[in-house]
């Protein structure tokens, strides 16, 4: 197994690849996806001009849009185009329209197929509270001020992928739903290694979250992570049960730096961590594997209730594009500029509805894009 991923994720490159050309696959998906993607592409084009980077964008269908166009949520061609690109920028998938389809035809199945098809076992979800947005958090200022957490979520194993799974009929004719939470030692070790190395680059505190008081799979998780810790004497390792971790995230989130956890627990805890920052509409993520290109996507969903109304917050998508530049394309300077532009737009008091508070100016998705482009120029 190739563990170089964490180096790729975490090291700031020494030399910047000037005048580079990149093949970027765009997966706009469903709901607000196309709107926020359009803004991200405009921003990337402006940043490309500034930094002499050529982005060759190719768009491919995924999720509900792909079901409508091709009858399947992840067409083979989409996966192939992704494999042959330098990075994949994904918006969001899903919507009411496809909610009642059988599981293999659900938009979510397309997303899970993309993750497993590209071997993206490590999902990095930063939750950082921006000073400009403290008042948008539902928690008290003193609780959230200074929060800076990185959730490292295992993404291709656990309950999401374990076999057997399905809805079966028992001998008495009753239906029985089954999913299986499994982890092998090597699956735990490779995500553990990414997490320890992530913590090393941050404040060297790693909290592993499991349910080892009840689940064997979690006992193995805890044993392996504890074993792995011997290789990282500079990292302070702690363990929490997932129920306690959820409570601690709300009680005193500043106790956390880097969190490592399994697929399902990471899904839940990353939403909770996101909400500390005021809005899930602000949070980007990177999904990385050992060989294939990474997928960069907002943590939030497709928000079908506001789709097509120019109300969506494009900032998580833009910040995902910045993560793509930083971790996928080694273009940290360009990533920095995008992040600075986001802060500038917030300093100008422009807000979408999800991060609106008293005295700020409510604007739409496209207008945030205009403001970002002005800030970049
Ligand atoms: C996420 C989402 C997905 C997940 C869904 C859409 C399948 O909630 O990326 O957190 O559960 O992983
Ligand atoms: Mg989720």
CATH superfamily of the largest domain: Isopropylmalate Dehydrogenase
Output mean pLDDT: 94
- Provide the gyration radius in Å: 20 Å
CATH class of the largest domain: Alpha Beta
CATH level-two architecture of the largest domain:
3-Layer(aba) Sandwich
Helix content: 40-55%
What are the distinct ligands in this entry? Answer: 3-isopropylmalic acid, magnesium ion
Total beta strand runs: 14
Q: How much of the sequence is in beta strands? A: 15-25%
Q: Main sheet: which strands, in order across?
A: 2-1-3-12-11-4-5-10-8-9
Distance between the termini: 44 Å
What is the H/E order? HEHEHHEHEHEEEHEHEHEHEEHHEEH
Strand pairing plus helix content: what structural class?
Answer: alpha/beta
CATH topology heading of the largest domain: Isopropylmalate Dehydrogenase
| Uncertain stretches of 5 or more adjacent residues | 1-15
**What global shape is seen?**
globular
The number of distinct helices, counting runs of at least 4 residues, comes to 13
The biggest sheet, with number of strands, parallel, antiparallel or mixed sense and barrel status, is:
10 strands, mixed
Topology:
Blueprint: H1 5-10, E1 21-29, H2 33-51, E2 54-59, H3 64-70, H4 76-83, E3 87-92, H5 107-117, E4 122-128, H6 141-144, E5 148-154, E6 162-169, E7 175-180, H7 185-201, E8 205-210, H8 216-228, E9 236-241, H9 242-251, E10 258-261, H10 263-276, E11 284-288, E12 295-298, H11 315-328, H12 332-347, E13 350-351, E14 361-362, H13 365-376
Parallel strand pairs: 1-2, 1-3, 3-12, 5-10, 8-9, 8-10, 13-14
Antiparallel strand pairs: 4-5, 4-11, 6-7, 11-12
Helix pairs in contact: 2-11, 2-13, 7-8, 9-10, 11-12, 12-13
Magnesium ion (MG) binds at residues 267, 271.
């Amino acid at each position: 197994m190739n563990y170089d991923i964490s180096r790729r994720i975490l090291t700031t490159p020494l030399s910047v690849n000037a005048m580079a050309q990149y093949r970027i696959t765009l997966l706009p998906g469903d709901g607000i996806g196309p709107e926020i993607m359009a803004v991200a592409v405009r921003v990337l084009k402006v940043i490309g001009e500034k930094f002499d980077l050529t982005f060759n964008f190719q768009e491919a269908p995924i999720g509900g849009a792909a079901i409508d166009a091709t009858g399947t949520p992840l067409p083979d061609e989409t996966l192939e185009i992704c494999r042959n690109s330098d990075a994949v920028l994904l918006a969001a998938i899903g919507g009411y329209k496809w909610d009642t389809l059988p599981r293999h035809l659900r938009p979510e199945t397309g997303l899970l197929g993309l993750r497993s098809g590209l071997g993206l076992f490590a999902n990095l979800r930063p939750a950082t509270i921006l000073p400009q947005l403290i008042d948008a958090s539902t928690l008290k200022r003193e609780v959230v001020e200074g929060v800076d957490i990185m959730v490292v979520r295992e993404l291709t194993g656990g309950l999401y992928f374990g076999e057997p799974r399905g809805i079966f009929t028992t001998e008495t004719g009753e239906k029985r739903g089954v999913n299986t939470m499994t982890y092998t030692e090597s699956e735990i070790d490779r995500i553990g290694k990414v997490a320890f190395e992530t913590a090393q680059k941050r404040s060297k505190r790693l909290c592993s979250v499991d349910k080892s008081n009840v689940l064997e799979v979690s006992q193995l998780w805890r044993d392996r992570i504890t074993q792995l810790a011997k290789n990282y004497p500079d990292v302070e390792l702690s363990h929490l049960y997932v129920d306690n971790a959820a409570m601690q995230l709300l009680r005193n989130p500043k106790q956390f730096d880097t969190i490592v956890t399994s697929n399902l627990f990471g899904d839940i805890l990353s939403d909770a961590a996101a909400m500390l920052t005021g809005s899930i509409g602000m949070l980007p993520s990177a999904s990385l594997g050992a060989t294939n290109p990474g997928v960069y996507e907002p943590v939030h969903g497709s928000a079908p209730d506001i789709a097509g109304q120019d109300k969506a917050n494009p900032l998580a998508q833009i910040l995902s594009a910045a993560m793509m530049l930083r971790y996928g394309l080694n273009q940290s300077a360009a990533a920095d500029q995008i992040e600075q532009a986001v802060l500038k737009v917030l300093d100008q008091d422009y807000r979408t509805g999800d991060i609106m508070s008293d005295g700020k100016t409510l604007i739409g998705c496209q207008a945030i894009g205009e403001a970002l482009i002005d800030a970049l120029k």
